[in-house]
Amino acid sequence: MSENVLHIDHLTMRFGGVVAVNDLSMDINKGEIVALIGPNGAGKTTAFNMITGVYTPTEGKVMLNGQDVTGKRPDEITKLGVARTFQNIRLFSSMTVFDNVLTARHLRRTSNFLTATFRLNAVEERKMRADTEALLREVDLFDLKDEMAISLPYGKQRLLEIARALSTQPKLLLLDEPAAGMNPQETEELGAFIKQIKDKFNLTVFLIEHHMNLVMGISDRIYVIDFGKQIAQGTPAEVQNNPAVIAAYLGVDEEEGVQ
Amino acid sequence: MSNSLTKKKIDSATIISAVIVLCLYVAVFIAEQFIPATSMLFTVLKKGATYALVAVSMNLCNGFTGIFSLGQAGFMLIGAYVYGIFTIPLAARMDVYQYYNGGLVQFVLPWFIAMILGGLAAAFFAFLIGLPVLRLKSDYLAIATLGFAEIIRALFQWDKLGPVTNGSNMLRLFPTFNDFNVRGAEGQVTVYLSTLVPLLIAGVCIGVIILLINSTFGRALKAIRDDEIAAEAMGIRLASHKRLAFCISSFFAGVGGAMLAMYQTTVQAKSFTTAMTYEILLIVVIGGIGSVTGSCISSFLFVAASEWWLRFLDQKQMIGNFEVPLLRNGFRLVVFSIIIMIVVLFFRQGIMGTKELPDLIRNWQRKGKGKEATSK
Questions:
Q1: How far apart are alpha carbons A236 and B242 in whole angstroms?
Q2: Do A90 and B215 touch (CB under 8 A)?
Q3: Domain for residue A184, yes or no?
Q4: What pLDDT score does B346 carry?
Q5: Percent helix, strand and coil across chain B, each rounded to 5?
Q6: N or C: which terminus of chain A carries fewer CB neighbours within 10 A?
């Protein structure tokens, strides 16, 4: 068994009377691509938000490389090597492509505000810029480096968000619907891209996605949740043939015509 | 090519901007030697420099970090008082603190140390009030900081603090801008510096703020302004960065307050009203939220318009035998308000938007190149 990167243990998240995530447990191992799927409102993004510290789970624990990170702040968790993208793109809109990626390197600084203001961190700053440049070349955004982030086409914005997440030097990358709004060809390219960066940056990838072609094509394992509860898990082939999954996606009720 | 980005290049536009600023300083220095010191020009430049510093400090908070703070007058008050308290000459203390037996503080600090101390005191207060207040968002934060400024104003007039703050009486007789003039043996002024030095103080402080904004911390602050959730997800600790911006902004507001004390030659807590904060907010909005250049330009324009150019509206004016209607005491403020409304209605982005001087020069350079290309 390979090394465990993320272990979530009986997570429950309640918002008032609503149980968004109910007793969810999962394990993600180093080097895997794991997908989390489920119908709209199933609690997928809530699960992400608990892992990244946006929400503190009502019950349960989040373990990162064996360390309990439950209740830590998002920035602390990012420092421990978890980076994410957002379902609705959240770029730094007033900044250029270059500065977006460069800003994500801020957390690895050793300078304080005085040394940074008076340029005593020139060596570090130069390193940050060089790393950013290399990263932008890697993801093929270098030609657009001086464009404003929001002026990019949608697909490029998604790419930039991934690049920005990579800039924090993560071990675990969480992608929240990276293919949302993409056409089939872009989606296919994205799949190849995710595999490529996974190998290149030695990542473990955990993604939420609705495009089944993408999910089935790149995932090693899949977790399926519905109404906050896990209903299935396994390899893409296993999940595809799981009756509970089919029921959750296509629905079963008394009406006719529903298969 | 591969080296082009690794070091942030200092391009010609930045150098040209620096030269322009330098030329302005030289021009002020020369003008000061030849134009009578009583000219309104110098009043405007002195007050403009003070307001420019405070406006830029407010912009650091409101424009670059997205913390909508309205405590500026309170922090200026702290800076002004600390400056005044520690610089009044010992001989004059009996006079100033006449109701408090000469006051409690019986030593004098050099002006620049007192000025920095004023900034530090303001930053310290900002740290304390920031602990609860920076958890609030937008309007709530504005209201809380506004309230803080009012409390400070009342506190400094409290009779029990009289031995230090002189209660509701004014502080005076401390060194002012005029003391920067170099005097000869008979006390006559040989070199006029009373306008240049305040401009230099403001310039150095604004320079430091610009350096901060362009550092990795400045980028983090802008990230927080653009999207708090994304910034936090990128590992930027919101609380510490907001506190940093708030304290640094207040530090420079405190220094600005000390400058205002020097400009006014007296300090009285009751003059640091909410209206003062609004004036500065107005300057920031007119200049462009998120533009240091804009804040500087609009400070001087604002001060010049309110103190100088529109003064004639307050007096009767005769054109031949015809008395221009409406002109009377107070009419200036009406016109001034209308101008401000027009600016806010039709120049939503302010004078500069989020652009800075080097950006403008770069634009001109690009246009120039475009013309050359088409003419060929």
A1: 45
A2: no
A3: yes
A4: 84
A5: 70, 5, 25
A6: N
Q: How far is CA B326 from CA B305, B310, B318, in A?
A: 19, 14, 12
Per residue in B268-317, pLDDT (tens digit) is: 999 999 999 999 999 999 999 999 999 999 999 999 988 888 888 877 77
- CA–CA distance from A182 to each of A79, A96, B54 (Å)? 30, 23, 47
ipTM, 2 decimals? 0.92
Minimum CA–CA partner of A106 in chain B: B216
Asked if residue A132 is part of any domain, the answer here is yes
Q: Is the pLDDT of residue A96 over 90?
A: yes
B217 touches chain A (CB under 8 A): yes
Together in a domain, A53 and A175? yes
* Residue A17: CATH number of its domain: 3.40.50.300
Residue A39 and residue A77 share a domain: yes
End-to-end C-alpha distance for chain A, whole angstroms = 38
Domain with A129 in it: 95-156
Q: What's residue B352's pLDDT?
A: 87
Residues A201 and A151 in one domain: no
pTM of the model: 0.92
Q: How many angstroms away from the CA of A106 is the closest CA of chain B?
A: 6
Same domain, residue pair A183 and A242? yes
Task: Choose the mutation target among A69, A98, A100, A117 for the interface with B, i.e. most B CBs under 10 Å.
Answer: A117
Buried b (16+ CB within 10 A) or exposed e, B261-279: bbbbeebbbebbeeebbeb
Whole-number pLDDT of residue B1:
40
Please report the pLDDT score of residue A258 as a whole number: 42
Tell if the CB–CB gap between B220 and A103 is shorter than 8 Å: yes
User: Does the pLDDT value for residue A90 go beyond 60?
Assistant: yes
Q: Which of A156, A178, A200 is the endpoint of a domain?
A: A156
Chain B (234-263) residues lying within 8 Å, Cβ to Cβ, of chain A: 234-238, 244, 248
Residue A233 lies in a domain: yes
Q: What pLDDT digit, counting tens, does each position of B172-228 carry? A: 999 999 999 998 888 888 899 999 999 999 999 999 999 999 999 999 999 999 999
For A193-210, the three-class secondary structure string (H helix, E strand, C coil) is: HHHHHHHHCCCEEEEECC
Q: Which of A131, A156, A181 is the last residue of a domain?
A: A156
Q: Is A238 on the interface with B (CB under 8 A)?
A: no
Q: Are residues A17 and A114 part of one domain?
A: no
| Claim to verify: residue A150 and residue A174 sit in the same structural domain | no
Residues of B in contact with A102 (CB under 8 A): 216, 219
Digit-coded pLDDT (tens) for B237-256: 999 999 999 999 999 999 99
Question: Sorting pLDDT into bands at 50, 70 and 90, what band is B325?
Answer: confident
In chain B, which residues have their Cβ closer than 8 Å to the Cβ of A89?
Answer: none
Please tell me whether residues A189 and A239 are part of one structural domain: yes
- Residue A246 CA to residue B216 CA, distance in Å, equals 49
The two three-digit tokens of residue A187, written as one number? 């989606």
The total of structural domains in chain A comes to 2
A98 contact residues in B (CB cutoff 8 A): 5
Residues in chain B closer than 8 A to A168 (CB atoms): 234-235
Mean pLDDT of A143-172: 94
- Are A174 and A207 in a shared domain? yes
